[in-house]
Design a protein that fits this description.
mainly alpha, disordered N terminus
């Protein structure tokens, strides 16, 4: 028996188990439930679920903010005003002024400025609002009558129907209930103003300490990013408010001088409305120009009305091409499409106040994206591609060349042939 005895075969247990790609075990693994999320449709479903979750969270936040607007709106306005007057606080603190004294002085200055602007608005509009409304209404009637004389496929009956629809809405119960709700909001306004003053006091006095407390949970790169975003937010809001206020004042003064020279009535109320509506980009200037042109149309005729329109266009061009880039900086330059979308969303969510706050909030978000990965390094997805930079520089070069060639043509010179970079 010993001759037929074999030594036991050694079994290696460390060798990995190899499975053929067509083996039943591998096929079962491929058909596992979680493998359905690995293909293209699974990735699309994953992104869709993530997007739905983000929308739900954003909607919950917006609804929550709308429920406590008495707190959130004063909070945002106080933050904007504190950012606008941050250089004043820094200047006084560097000269040894105590924090409480500097805060009280700045707060009193803000309250005086806001009260003076409010008094000016009430004084300018209160006694002449009925006349301003009637002049604008008469101008609209004349414009509709002139529109009816044009050879267009729109008859007077259609125009009367549109005007009647607007009139019915303004006299409807829905619009009236909104007006009554606005009257009932006076108490909320007083409460919000008191909260605004209190919050502004603490933002001015202890703003840096409050921000440092909020940054305590962050570490490393997240902390550095939060610091950059905070600095960028204060800079953006401050520049926006100071620049917009300066631009609005220049626009109002320019329109006022032009209206006085043209002897258009209600010049001061119109200039005041120009100053107020300048805080609503694009739409505000358009509304103010239309209102001024309508008043000039009724009081002074078509020629003066056209001159007023030209004056408004000239002031807006001066604002957009010179004042805003110099006073507000290129970093706050948002595309017109983005501004319109922000205005629409802000108006839907919070009315006129939302339209005023939508653009600075959008500018803050874009500023945070621009410093996400460094002082001058935007987030990875927002960085321009090398081809985009080259195309943009080439387009700018071609625009400058066209301007130079046009200037040479006016002087009777021949254009210079030059290849694009």
């Amino acid at each position: 028996m010993g001759l037929f005895t074999r030594a036991p075969r050694s079994i290696t247990v460390d060798a990995p188990l190899r499975l053929d790609s067509e083996s039943p075990v591998q096929l079962a693994a491929d058909r596992a439930p979680w493998s359905l999320w690995a293909d293209g449709m699974g990735k699309l479903a994953t992104r869709a679920l993530q997007l739905i979750f983000v929308v739900i969270v954003a909607a919950a936040i917006v609804l929550g903010i709308q429920q406590v607007t008495v707190v959130t709106i004063p909070l945002v306005i106080a933050l904007i005003l504190a950012s606008a007057f941050a250089p004043v606080m820094g200047w006084m603190r560097r000269r040894g002024v105590p924090a409480v004294l500097a805060t009280v002085t700045t707060l009193l200055a803000i309250v005086v400025i806001l009260s003076a602007v409010g008094w000016l608005i009430v004084w300018a509009v209160r006694d002449q609002w009925d006349e301003l409304y009637s002049k604008a209404q008469d101008g609209f009637t004349q414009a509709v009558a002139w529109f009816g004389t044009l050879d267009l496929p729109i008859d007077q009956a259609q125009v009367d129907e549109w005007v009647g629809s607007v009139t019915d809405f303004l006299t409807s119960a829905q619009f009236g209930s909104g007006a009554l709700a606005g009257v009932g909001a006076v108490a909320n306004f007083v409460t919000g103003f008191v909260l605004l003053v209190v919050m502004l006091f603490f933002f001015l006095k202890d703003g840096p300490q409050m921000w440092a407390f909020l940054l305590r949970p962050f570490r490393g790169e997240n902390y550095a990013r939060a610091v950059r975003i905070g600095d960028k937010t204060v800079t953006t809001l401050g520049s926006y408010v100071r620049g917009t206020a300066t631009v609005a004042a220049v626009d109002a003064i320019g329109i006022l001088i032009g209206l006085l020279i043209l002897q258009v009535p209600l010049a001061i109320p119109l200039a005041t409305l120009v100053f107020l509506l300048a805080f609503i980009p694009i739409v505000g200037a358009t509304v103010a120009g239309i209102l001024a042109a309508l008043v000039a149309l009724v009081a002074n005729g078509w020629v003066v009305a056209l001159v007023v329109v030209g004056l408004v266009v000239l002031v807006n061009q001066l604002e957009g091409n010179f004042l805003q880039p110099v006073l507000m900086g290129r970093s706050l330059k948002l595309h017109a499409f983005v501004v319109l979308v922000a205005l629409t969303v802000g108006t839907v969510l919070a009315g006129i106040l939302g339209a005023v706050l939508a653009v600075p909030i959008t500018a803050v978000v874009w500023g945070a994206i621009l410093v996400w990965d460094g002082e001058s390094t935007p987030a990875r997805w927002a960085r321009p591609k090398p081809g985009e930079e080259a195309a943009g520089s080439t387009e700018r070069w071609r625009l400058r060349k066209r301007k130079r060639d046009a200037a040479r043509s006016q002087r009777g010179e021949q254009p210079v042939v030059q290849a694009a970079p």
